[in-house]
Design goal:
heterodimer, A: 114 residues, mainly beta, four-stranded antiparallel β-sheet, 11 strands, B: 112 residues, six-stranded mixed β-sheet, five-stranded antiparallel β-sheet, 0% helix
């Protein structure tokens, strides 16, 4: 069974640009959540989508947005990039309903803003 | 007060030692607790999850939840150099299933 796939693995962007990250969950999983990981703040929750609807949202500015498609694949977008947005962005998938199996993470997208 | 508190370490032990990793949580409205292992430049890997309270064992790993003291622990028996990684505890509340609250992670080094 394929795991959670995140693309691209690495990105370098300039301040002020925007970026889109992609996440393909495990087949059959309908919940996708996104996290930002930095050395200073650890893992911080961005948002979670379930069946194309945002179900939970963290405390990030509106520059961070996401969406989920009918095949459960998800994208997150960051507009007007700032230096502080440099981080490892992780997505996790789970069935989202029924028996709990935990959350499986992808390898992440490392974003560097210069 | 943070949802989950975890001592960042670092923790350094010799091969074969028993390792104890601990977290505390602040809210009793919990549902599941998880332990993740994260190698450098990789995503977190789910090791174990437990519900509510009690123990769960999987090979060399044992997860324990103590409701009375709001303490969650991970024990690693016969530790190996390949166990060297950052260990993260996390919880998810029933009311916000889908949102994980993470500790800061404990960096573990097992030396041969």
């Amino acid at each position: 069974k394929a795991g959670v796939t995140q693309t691209p693995r690495y990105l370098i962007k300039t301040r002020g640009q925007q970026v889109t990250l992609s996440c393909s969950p495990i087949s059959g999983h309908r919940s996708v959540s996104w996290y930002q990981q930095t050395p200073g703040q650890g893992l911080q929750f961005l948002f979670e989508y379930f069946s194309e609807t945002q179900r939970n949202k963290g405390n990030f500015p509106g520059r961070f947005s996401g969406r989920q498609f009918s095949n459960s694949r998800s994208e997150m977008n960051v507009s007007t990039l700032e230096l502080g947005d440099s981080a490892l962005y992780l997505c996790a998938s789970s069935p989202g309903t029924g028996q709990f199996y935990g959350y499986t993470f992808g390898s992440g997208t490392r974003l560097t803003v210069v | 007060q943070k949802e989950v508190e975890q001592d960042p370490g670092p923790l350094s032990v010799p091969e074969g030692a028993i390792v104890s990793l601990n977290c505390t949580y602040s809210n009793s409205a919990f549902q599941y607790f998880m332990w993740y292992r994260q190698y450098s430049r990789k995503g977190p890997e789910l090791l174990m999850y437990t519900y509510s309270s009690g123990n769960k064992e999987d090979g060399r790993f044992t997860a324990q939840v103590d409701k009375s003291s709001k303490y969650i622990s991970l024990f690693i028996r016969d530790s190996q150099p390949s166990d060297s990684a950052t260990y993260l505890c996390a919880r998810v509340r029933g009311s916000t299933l889908g949102r994980l609250y993470f500790g800061r992670g404990t960096q573990l080094t097992v030396w041969p």
